[in-house]
């Protein structure tokens, strides 16, 4: 089961990387197009949507890999029960915040679909289409936080802390 979760987080990271590559291709084609005298319609819009998608798809993978910034100056001084309580409180708060954001990301998708909102570029793209990756990325972050919350409740080391410990050992 752990392998399936790891593959899920890795797929989220690959999706983020694909969106970054898409941005590069769109901008490169746009540059070449300007040299040869043609434009790529809505290239800026597509690049912006891909940037949002890469940001949100990358959240779960980065969280799982311990890449998010944590203030460890105080945390590293805690041990035992105090550290457990702190980790639990932060994960519960983070999970609640992620759930709130996920709900409103999907609500935004739904409203864009219902009100038939479109982009204002050359090509009128229905906004709900590029908003779906934002909702999916937030949903993946929810799963990642819940995964580590359950690990802490079972008195196991959360995934982000395992990677932090690996990094700290490499620095020593």
UniProtKB/TrEMBL annotation:
| Keywords from the UniProt entry | Cell inner membrane, Cell membrane, Membrane, Transmembrane, Transmembrane helix, Transport
tRNA-binding listed as a keyword: no
> Which residues span the membrane?
12-40, 46-67, 88-109, 129-153
Source domain of life:
Bacteria
What's the chief localization of this chain?
A: membrane
Annotated Gene Ontology cellular component terms = plasma membrane
Q: Which family does it belong to?
A: Belongs to the TRAP transporter small permease family.
Outline the subunit composition.
The complex comprises the extracytoplasmic solute receptor protein and the two transmembrane proteins.
PANTHER family, A to Z: 2,3-DIKETO-L-GULONATE TRAP TRANSPORTER SMALL PERMEASE PROTEIN YIAM, TRAP TRANSPORTER SMALL PERMEASE PROTEIN
Record-given protein name: TRAP transporter small permease protein
The lineage, from the top, is:
Bacteria, Pseudomonadati, Pseudomonadota, Gammaproteobacteria, Pseudomonadales
């Amino acid at each position: 089961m752990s392998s399936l979760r790891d593959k899920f987080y890795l797929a989220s990271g690959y999706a983020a990387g694909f969106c970054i590559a898409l941005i590069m291709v769109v901008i490169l084609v746009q540059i070449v197009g300007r040299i040869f005298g043609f434009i790529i319609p809505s290239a800026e819009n597509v690049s912006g949507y891909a940037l949002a998608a890469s940001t949100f798809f990358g959240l779960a993978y980065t969280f799982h890999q311990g890449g998010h910034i944590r203030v460890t100056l105080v945390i590293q001084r805690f041990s035992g029960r105090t550290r457990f309580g702190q980790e639990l409180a932060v994960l519960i708060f983070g999970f609640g915040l992620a759930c709130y954001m996920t709900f409103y990301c999907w609500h935004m998708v739904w409203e864009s679909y219902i009100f038939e909102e479109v982009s204002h570029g050359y090509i009128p793209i229905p906004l709900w289409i590029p908003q779906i990756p934002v909702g999916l990325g937030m949903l993946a972050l929810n799963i990642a936080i819940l995964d580590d919350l359950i690990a802490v409740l079972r008195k196991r080391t959360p995934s982000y802390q395992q990677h932090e410990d690996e990094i700290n050992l490499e620095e020593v």
